[in-house]
Every structure is written in structure tokens, then in C-alpha cells.
User: What shape does this take?
Amino acid sequence: MSKEYIGEFEELILTLVAALKDDAYGAAITEEIESKLSREVNLSAVHVTLYRLEDKGFIKSELGGGTNMRGGRKKRIFTITSAGMAMLKNIKDSRLKLWNMVPELKIAAE
Amino acid sequence: MKEQDQIIPHWVRRFLQLICPEYLYEEIEGDLIYRYNRDLLKHNNNKAKRRLVWNAIRFFRPGILMRNNFTKGLNYQIMLKYHLLVAWRVLLKNKLFSFTNVSGLAIGFACCIFITMYVLDELSYDQYHGKAHRIYRLLHNSGNLADTAATSNNPKDYDVWGNAPVGVALQAEFPEVEQVVRFSGRARTVLRKDDKVFNEENIFIVDSTAFDVFSWKFVAGDPQKALAQPNSIVLTQSTAKKYFGDENPVGQTIEVDAIPGRINEASTCMVTAVLEDIPHNSHFTFDVLMPMSMFKRSRPGVFTAWGYVDTYTYFTVTEGFDINVLHAKMHDFTRRHVTDWSYNVLIEPMGDAYLHSEAKRQPGVTGNLSNIYLFSAIAVFILIIASINFMNLSSARSMTRAKEVGVRKVSGARQWALMSQFLTEAVLLSLISACIAYLIVLAAMPGFRTLTGKALGLELLFMPGTIVILLGSAVVVGLFAGIYPAAVLSSFLPSQVIKGIIKASFQGAVLRKGLVIFQFTLSIALIAGTTIVYNQLEHMRSVDMGFEQDQMLVIDYGYDGRVQSKIDLIKDEYEKMSFVTSVSATRTVPGGHFPKAGTSVETASGEMINHAPNLYEVDFDFIEHFDIEVVAGRGYSREFPADTAKSMVINQAAARLWGYPNPEDIIGKKFSQWGRDGRIIGVVKDFNYVSLHDQVEPLTLRLEPKWSTSFLALELKTTDFPAALSQIEDTWKQMAPHRPFLYSFLDDSFNRQYQADVRFGKVFGVFAVLAIFIACLGLFGLAAWTAERRIKEIGIRRVLGASFAQIISLLSADFMKLVAVAIVIATPLAWYVMSRWLEGFAFQTEIRWWVFALAGLMATLIALITVSFQSAKAASTNPAKSLRSE
Assistant: This one.
């Protein structure tokens, strides 16, 4: 497993690319973050992060079709690579491992 | 779909295109439109628009921009490589065109480099002193209390040469004056070390503070002690080498003959220090320094006399010094010390001494600011002429390349791509020229040194900064010269040019003609200017100087007391020689150095009025010997023994100074000068004893047949100069064996005053030749192109029976018209500039009409030869050949 780490926002985007599957492109991901997480993000920030993840080899992209909503412009559809998937799993495992160390009591109290 | 395209405002789209990499642009635009449509569901149209613009602008971030630069840079590199390749092929394909342009531009650049070096050198004067910006000097003005010139504030009325006590008083009374150094007027005497005897003509007697003020570099010795003791002496490196060879001179002794008027007895001095040779960019230089204490010991009176002029005064000031504050105090200061006559001083920064000082009696040669401007202008003109060649030839050739442009455009080249290609060609050409110019400069440096008389170093050429600036300017010149042809070429419409419909643009032709006229105007003006400079030089040589200067041998014995004591004997000895027609001993020969003397003369109203006219101290024979015309009264004569004590001869200017426009009227008036009272016995014509730059100033000729003399002037009448010279030298060695035989010819040394003018004329001439050469290169190229374009027309004309001469005149007439226009423009221009230049001379040559006729004729001839060479080639082409293919 590569020693590379990714930041929080990168992780978020990567997860969404994995989740949205064939519909993972800049505007959709932005919308998803805004609706699901109620978090204000700028379109350009999402784009830049996507390109960076692509540079790191965690996602790959190809041009998809256009829709009327986007004035006929093509989408760039991102899909997660196996390296990206491994990275996501790794993050999830290590988070879980750490999570298990947190005393049960607190969870029970919740 | 159409209205969707309008969603993003035009400028935002342009902005996005600019910042986004091309491969990302479409999806980004799509996402933006998508966001906008989503926003429309929630907000009104305006807000959605605002958000859209904001979102778009937010793409201006490194994550996007950096992607962009990387990939695009790669693209540019490929294009550039391609452009260079094409440019190189074009250069090779059109050899005549390339040669014309490259050689013109290279010469233009070389001129610019040379002139820049010259100008930088001129501007660098005295800057090497560590305290340069804190060094100032005094300018002095003395005169009669009633004399208006004496109260003027115009530096032109002031001398740098002044009295000795003022410096000491200045330092004592003004705290802002830090350190004062005085030095005597330039002295000369003989130095001896065993058998090595040389006449040193470049000696200054200075205060020991000299090295605190000026930062000359020491090779050996201690600056603090070098001039502290009397009988010490400081030499420059090359002077020391003359006497001591490779030995260490410090601590050794050297015999110094008397320096009359300053150090009256011979002495044995110890060399205390050796200086590096004084840099050439100093407003005064010297070979030997001697301590002021020796001057003081020999003539203490000089150092308290405010009226005795023999020192230059320089001083350093404290930081924060304000020249105006000190100036304001100077009036009271001089009044406190001098009450008997009017005495004023001005303060001048040393930085102004070389180029900006207008005062007289400078310690060294000064530069000429207007020459710097003139030369810089000429360099720029030459470069412009060369750039015009490029513009003209490229735009003229545009027809030839029109098809190429058409094909490129059809294959998808945009206008800016074509422009960048043509600009690449221009810049490449310019860079090649710059490299050649650099080589030309290296090769022609010795010639340029001789031409300007400057010891310019090559260091400047090898500094990385210089090379960067040179290449940078080459790129700028390339862009400047290339922008017009590139714009014209890249604007052709492919549909027309490929069909072959290209009209020679009227504008283009007019511009080309205008530029040719401009080139020739400058060239003709330069030719006319050169002719006028040479006319003026010739005029100065031919002006009746009012004294005899031909075949006049001058022996210099530097006030040597032993020679003076038997000067009559020596004169007799020489007069006996058959080829010597007359002999005179004098303190000054025309063109040489002379002092001023406070002199009172009785005016018409009987009042004694004091002025300070120039002074020649002469013997009985001087006036007759130099064939100076006596216009009133008589010259000195041995028949009047009283002449030695009671008589004086003056010149017409002096008579006018005391208010006698008619010289007869001053004869018999009383005078008083330097302790001698008597009457004026004669007035001589205003002979030109200084350079013809200046009017003849008032002069008094004082009879001092022995103890003030320094030169022996012999008029020779012989054709065998070597024999005469050796005989004169033999006699000298018998009569004055201790004194080296130093001689010169009066006309040579007098004309040396015009060295700067001669040099100016030469530099001007060289530039004029270069300018016309480059202009002709351009014309040559244009003519070649015209001939080529009209080759079919010529063929048909030939077939129909046109003669060779007719065809040549057909092809040349157009160009000749341009030259004619240039002559019309250049004449008043050159006339104006040159008459301003001539104002610098008191004796001016007239600007004659034939100068312009000559310049015009020369330009016409040269242009005609250039053009008809091409025309002849075209005319002699066999029509069968030129008409064979269509």
C-alpha cells in the first residue's frame, strides 16, 4: 500500500466518486456535498481536488455525454481506481481501529 | 441550445479560456452552466448570474493555472522550434535579403555599443573617488570693484584657478567643510636619477590632505605620511618605472630641479609613495606630486596673498551638506577677507567638473556634453536606419510571401500564429546581427580607441549584464522592426492571395517611400554636417592668426635659471646660424599657458582703473619675431633703454577694455602693473594667441627679457630640417649641457588645441559614412526587389524596343525622386543643427550652399550607383528568359 495520505476534503471527494459511480462529475459532486452534508463548497475547489486525485492515480476520468442542463457541454466522468478503492478501505479500516479504542461507555451514554 | 450559449457572458468566457487548459475547458463550462440552471430553481435570474460569474472567477486558482502553464508551455516550445526552423530556412533562401538586413543591423548595433561605451565612459569621470559625491571645489572671480563682470554669478566669468589663503579660511570658518586640499597650477621641471633625466610636464604641488579627499590607489607607501614632510615626492607607477626600472622606488631619492615661481631651488627628494597611474576618466591627471610645504617654504608670501592666483582648491563636506546654504554665506566671507577689489567665489560639485563646468582655467581637459547628446542621437539614428531597412524589405517582399500566408491560413493558422512566426524571423535576424555586432566591436576596438582617443577597457563588454542588455535590446529592435511587416503579412485574406489578387497596398508603398526619404534625410544631413565640420577645421587653420607660426621651432627650458642667465649668449649663438632668421626668448608662446596680471591704466578721464588682463612676458624681439602687427605707437626697442622699466605694449582688446576704441588714444597713458609704473608705448593687433573657439581677450605684453623666460623661439628658413635640428641641438648641448633639449614646432603645438575638434570631425565622418552605407544597403535591397517584380514588364519593353538606358532610367527614377525629397528636407535641418554647432567658435566659417549641393550630389550618386546596378542587371536579362513562363 502506498505511503501516500490524503486530506479530509480529498477523502470526501474520493468517497463520493466511489458512491456516485457513473454520475460522478464536478457539478454533481458539488451538489451532493451541499445537499447531503449541508456544506458550502465552491465548484472550482471540487474540480481542483478531482484533478489532483487523478494525478495521484486514485481516480481516472473520461469524457461523457452532455445534457441540456449544461448547455450541451460534455461531462468529465470520474471513476475510482483500484488504488483509490484500496486507499478508501485503508482509511476506513484505520479509522475503525482507532474508533474501537474509544471507551464503550461514551457510546452507551449517547 | 442557442440561448444556452448566451448564459455565460462573453468576457467571462474569454477569461475562462485564458486561464483554463484547453482540455478542461469544456467540462468546466458545462459544470458552470449546470450550476447556473440549478441556481435558477432557487434564486432569481440576477442572483444566479452573479453566482455564475463568481464561480467562474473562482477558477482563477493555482490548481487550474498551473496545469495550464505546464501543458501550454510545451506547446509553445514546439511552435517556437518550428518557427525558428522556418525562420532559418527563410534566411537561407533569401540570401541577399538576409545579408542586407543582417549587415545593416549589425553595423547599427555596433555603433550603438561603441557610443554607449563612449557615453558611459564620459559619465564615469571622477566617480571612482570614495567620497566623490562629497567633493566640491571653489571657482574664483576677481575684478575691479566697479566691474560688473566681477559681481556676476555666471560660472563662465569664474576661474577654477585661484588664490591660496581662501582654502584655509574656508576650512577654519565653516564647520561643514571637512577637509581642504589645494594644489598648484600644473608645473613642469626636470627630474634626475643618475643618468636618467626626464622633463616632467605633469606635476602638481599639493597639500598633504590630498589622499584624504581623493582616492587614488597606492601601490606602495602610506597615504598619511606620503606628503607630510618636505622633500618627499610621490610618483605614479609608470613614472617611477622610468627612473627606477623594476627596483622598489620607495625610500630612494631623486633630484628635482627648481620649479620657478613655486619651488625656487633644486632639491633632493625621497620617494615616499607610488600611485597607480591616474585613471583616464579623471578631470585632471598627473605623473608627480610634491608637498605644498616646499612651495610654502620657498614662497611664503603666496599663502597669505588673496590676490595671487596659483592654486586649485577642492574640499570635502560633511554629510547633509547643502550647497545653497554655503553659497549664501560666501558673499560675506569674501568681503571679510578682501576689501580692495571685488572677489567672489562659487562652489561647484566635483561631479560637474568634467561635463558641466563652464568655468575657465580648468586643471585638465573637460568634456563636451552636447557632443554626448549628438553622438547618442546619431547612434539611435543609425539603428533606426537599419531597422527601416528591415521594415521596408520585409513589407516589400510581402507579395512574394503572400501565397505562403494564404496556404498557411487555409491550413488553419490564425493571424496571431502567423504574426508570431514573422516576429520570430525578425527577432532571429536581429539576434544574429547583435552577435555579429559584438564581434565587430571586439575587432574594431583598437580603431575606436584611436578615433576617440579614449583608453576604453573591454571589461564592460564581458560583463554578463552587458550581454543580457545587448540581447534584450536586440529582441526589442527585432520586435520593433518586425511588427509592421508581420501585421501586413498576416492580414492577407487567403481567398484572395491564393487566387493571385494582391494589390500592392497604397499605404504600404507610401510608408516605404516615407521611410526611404527619412533614411536619406539623415544620411544627407550627416554628410553635410561632416563637410561643415571639416570646413570649420580648415577655416581655423587658414585664418590669419596675426602671428607667424610656420617654421617656428620652440625650445622649452622650463624657466631654468642657468639658461636664463645666459639667454642673450644663446640667442647670439643661434642668430649666427645661416638658417635661423630670428630668435626670441619668452615666457609664453602663442597657444601656450599664460597668467593674468592685475593692471591699472589711466582712462580718458584720468582715473586709474584696475583690470586683470592676460599677460605675456616677452623680450625685445618677440613682436618682430612673431611678425605681430603694431597698429599704434611702437613695439619694444633696445634703442629705448627705458623700455625695460617704464613701458608696456598691449593689444587692441586691452585698449578697448580701458575705453579706447581707437588704439592711438591710449598711447602715452599711465599704467601700473606688478610693481612697474610707466606709460603705454604701443598697441598690437589682436593676434589669436588662444584657440579660435574664443574671442581674442585683452592682453598685455610685458618686457621681461631674461628672468621670466621659458621658451626660445627660432624662426627657421631651410628645407633640410633634420640637419638644422641636429645643429641646433649640438649648440644647445654646448651652451646648456645640464638641460635636456626639448623642442616642438609652433604650428604643431598650436594646432593640438584643435585635437578635440579634429576628433569630433573624424567620428562624425565615420558615422556619416556608416549611415549612408546602411541606407544604401536598404536601397539596394529595394531596387533588387523592384527589378525582380517588374522583370516581365522589362522583358516586354525590351521586346518592344526600349533601350538599355531607358530601362535603367525607368527603374531608377522612382528612387531618385525620393532622394531629391530627402535633399530638400535635409538641407534646412543640417543647416540649423550645424549653425548651432558653429556657435561654439568665435571664428566661424560660413555655411556655403555648395555644402548641401555636394551632400545631395554624393547621396544621389551613391544611390544611383546602388540602384542602377540592379536595374542594369534587370535590363540586361534576356527577354526570352524572363517572358518564357507565366
Remarks:
- The longest helix of chain A spans residues 82-101.
- The CA atoms of residues 69 and 89 of chain A lie 34 Å apart.
